[in-house]
C-alpha cells in the first residue's frame, strides 16, 4: 500500500475560487473513483504577513492510499485536472502549485514548513527541497503555490484545531449570504469554549466577506462539536457540500521567540519582550502606536483601528512598563499587535501643590518662593511639589484583539487557559496628560 501526500496552494481569485473548495471537489472525485483519503484533509495557514499571499494564505494537504503505481498516476491525473478546471487561471492573482510526495516526511520538510509559516521563502527554495526529497512539483503560471503546497505536506501539528466549511451552490456566488444571526448566537452559547470566534456583537465571524464559494466556517476543538454546531446554524439557502479540515489555525504556530529586537526581520512573526519607551500616540484613522525597546534597539508597535477597544488598553501604557508583544512585522517595519502580556507596570504619579495643615490646597507664592495657603495664610519655603501615586486601570496579564480583528493563526487566550484581567476603559490621568496624543481618547 502506498501513501501519496498531496499539497495544493494559491488557487485564490477575485471571482471566488479557493483552495479548500477545490480540495473538497478533488477528495469527492477520488472517493467516487474508489480511492480512500486517510484522515481529515489539513488546512495549513502560512505567514499572514507574506507580501504575496491569498486572502487567508492557506494551503491544503491530504493523504490518499493507493495500491499500485498505476493508482498513484490515476490520482495525480485527477488532482491536476480538477485544479486546471477550477482554479480560474485567467485571474492574475492565481498562481497555483501542486506537490505530490510518497516518501517520509523529513525534518528538513518540517523546518521548511515552519519557515513558510513564520518567515518568507522563495519558489527556488521549494523547488530545491522538492528535488532533494523526491517530491513531484507542478506549478501553474508563476507557480508560487508550490511553496505552500510543499509546506502543507511537511507541516507538523503538535497542536491543532478543526474547521468545518460549508459551500454554496454556484448560482449564489457573489450574492448576500442568508445566515440567521440569532442561530449563530445560540450555537455559540451552546458550544461554549468548544468552538470559538463565531460571533462578535453584531459581527457574524463565521461568515466570509468575499464572493468565495464558502457559506460559513465554524472553528472548534473537535470534528464532533463542529457537526453539532452545523446542525444549530440556520441558513436560507442551499448548501452544496461541507468538509472538515484539521488545521493549525489558532495555535500561534506562526510565532517565534525573538531574543532581541534587533534580530527581528520584516514580514516575520514574533513574541518579543521589552520596555515601553514612549507614551502611546494616535494617528489619523484611530491607529495607536508606541515604541518598544530593549538593549539591542527599538521597534514601533501598532494597534490598528480594526482592533477596536483593544486600542484603549494600549493607550494606557506608559514608559517603563515591561511587556511581551505577539505579532508580525509589516512592510513598514511596524510590529502589528495580536496580543500583549503586561509583565510589570511602572509607577505613575502626578505632581501637586502641598496640602496645608488647615486642609486646604496651597497655591504658588511665585517663582521659587514656595507656597502660600489661600485660607489661613500659612507659607512653605520649599517650592517642591508633592508626588501622588495614581491608580492605573491596567493590571498585569494578557490582553488580546477582539474576534473581528483576529488573524487565522493567532491563539485565543481561552485556548491558552488564560483570562484577561478586568479592564474598565476610562480616560486615565496618564492619557489626559500625555503630550504625545494628537487625537482625543474619546474619539477611538
Automatic annotation (TrEMBL):
Gene3D superfamilies: 2.40.50.1010, 3.30.70.2200, 3.90.600.20
EC number annotated for this UniProt entry: 6.3.4.22
Broad class of enzyme this protein falls into: ligase
MF annotations from Gene Ontology: ATP binding; ligase activity, forming carbon-nitrogen bonds; nucleic acid binding
CDD domains for the chain: RPA2_OBF_like
InterPro entries: NA-bd_OB_tRNA, TiaS-like_TCKD, TiaS_FLD, tRNA_Ile2__agm2C_synt, Zn_ribbon_TiaS
Keyword annotations of the record: ATP-binding, Cytoplasm, Ligase, Nucleotide-binding, tRNA processing
Compositionally biased residues, Polar residues: 426-436
UniProt subcellular location: Cytoplasm
Positions of the UniProt region annotated as Disordered: 422-444
Reaction equations catalysed: cytidine(34) in tRNA(Ile2) + agmatine + ATP + H2O = 2-agmatinylcytidine(34) in tRNA(Ile2) + AMP + 2 phosphate + 2 H(+)
Coiled-coil zones: none
Residue span(s) of domain OB: 271-332
Transmembrane segments: none
Residue intervals of the TiaS C-terminal zinc ribbon domain: 353-394
Protein's GO biological process: tRNA wobble cytosine modification
One Pfam family this sequence matches: tRNA_anti-codon
Residue ranges occupied by any TiaS FLD domain in the UniProt entry: 143-254
GO cellular component, one term: cytoplasm
Residues covered by the TiaS-like TCKD domain: 6-140
Free-text function comment from the UniProt entry: ATP-dependent agmatine transferase that catalyzes the formation of 2-agmatinylcytidine (agm2C) at the wobble position (C34) of tRNA(Ile2), converting the codon specificity from AUG to AUA.
Protein family membership: Belongs to the TiaS family.
Protein name: tRNA(Ile2) 2-agmatinylcytidine synthetase TiaS
Organism: Methanothermobacter defluvii
Amino acid at each position: 500500500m502506498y501513501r501519496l501526500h498531496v499539497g495544493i496552494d494559491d488557487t485564490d481569485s477575485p471571482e471566488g475560487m479557493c483552495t479548500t473548495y477545490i480540495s473538497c471537489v478533488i477528495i469527492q472525485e477520488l472517493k467516487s473513483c474508489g480511492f480512500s483519503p486517510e484522515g481529515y484533509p489539513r488546512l495549513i495557514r502560512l505567514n499572514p504577513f507574506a507580501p504575496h499571499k491569498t486572502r487567508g494564505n492557506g494551503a491544503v494537504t491530504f493523504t490518499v492510499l493507493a495500491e499500485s503505481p498505476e493508482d498513484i498516476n490515476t490520482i495525480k491525473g485527477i488532482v491536476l485536472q480538477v485544479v486546471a478546471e477550477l482554479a480560474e487561471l485567467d485571474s492574475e492573482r492565481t498562481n497555483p502549485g501542486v506537490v505530490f510526495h510518497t516518501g517520509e516526511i523529513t525534518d528538513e520538510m518540517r523546518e521548511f514548513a515552519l519557515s513558510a509559516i513564520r518567515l518568507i521563502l522563495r519558489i527556488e527554495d521549494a523547488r530545491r527541497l522538492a528535488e532533494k526529497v523526491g517530491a513531484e512539483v507542478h506549478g501553474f503560471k508563476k507557480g508560487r503555490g508550490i511553496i505552500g503546497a510543499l509546506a502543507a505536506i511537511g507541516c507538523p501539528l503538535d497542536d491543532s484545531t478543526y474547521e468545518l466549511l460549508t459551500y454554496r451552490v454556484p448560482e449564489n456566488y457573489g450574492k448576500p449570504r442568508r445566515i440567521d444571526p440569532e442561530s449563530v448566537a445560540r450555537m455559540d452559547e451552546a458550544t461554549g469554549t468548544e468552538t470559538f470566534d463565531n460571533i462578535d456583537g453584531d459581527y457574524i465571524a463565521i461568515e466570509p466577506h468575499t464572493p468565495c464559494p464558502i457559506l460559513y466556517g465554524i472553528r472548534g476543538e473537535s470534528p464532533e462539536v463542529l457537526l453539532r454546531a452545523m446542525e444549530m446554524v440556520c441558513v436560507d439557502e442551499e448548501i452544496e457540500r461541507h468538509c472538515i479540515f484539521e488545521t493549525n489555525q489558532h495555535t500561534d504556530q506562526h510565532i517565534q521567540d525573538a531574543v532581541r529586537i534587533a534580530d527581528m526581520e520584516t514580514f516575520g512573526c514574533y513574541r518579543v519582550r521589552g520596555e515601553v519607551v514612549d507614551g502611546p500616540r494616535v494617528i489619523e484613522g484611530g491607529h495607536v502606536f508606541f515604541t518598544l525597546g530593549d538593549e539591542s534597539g527599538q521597534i514601533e508597535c501598532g494597534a490598528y483601528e480594526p482592533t477596536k477597544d483593544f486600542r484603549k488598553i494600549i493607550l494606557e501604557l506608559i514608559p517603563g512598563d515591561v511587556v511581551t508583544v505577539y505579532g508580525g512585522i509589516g512592510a513598514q517595519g511596524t510590529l502589528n499587535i495580536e496580543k500583549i502580556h503586561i509583565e510589570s507596570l511602572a509607577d505613575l504619579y502626578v505632581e501637586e501643590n502641598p496640602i496645608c495643615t488647615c486642609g486646604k490646597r496651597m497655591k504658588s507664592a511665585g517663582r521659587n518662593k514656595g507656597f502660600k495657603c489661600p485660607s489661613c495664610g500659612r507659607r512653605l519655603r520649599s517650592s517642591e511639589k508633592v508626588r501622588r501615586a495614581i491608580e492605573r486601570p491596567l493590571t498585569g496579564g494578557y490582553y488580546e484583539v477582539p474576534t473581528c480583528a483576529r488573524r487565522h493563526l493567532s491563539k485565543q487566550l481561552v485556548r491558552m487557559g488564560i483570562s484577561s484581567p478586568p479592564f474598565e476603559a476610562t480616560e486615565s490621568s496618564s492619557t489626559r496628560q500625555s503630550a504625545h496624543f494628537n487625537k482625543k481618547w474619546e474619539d477611538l
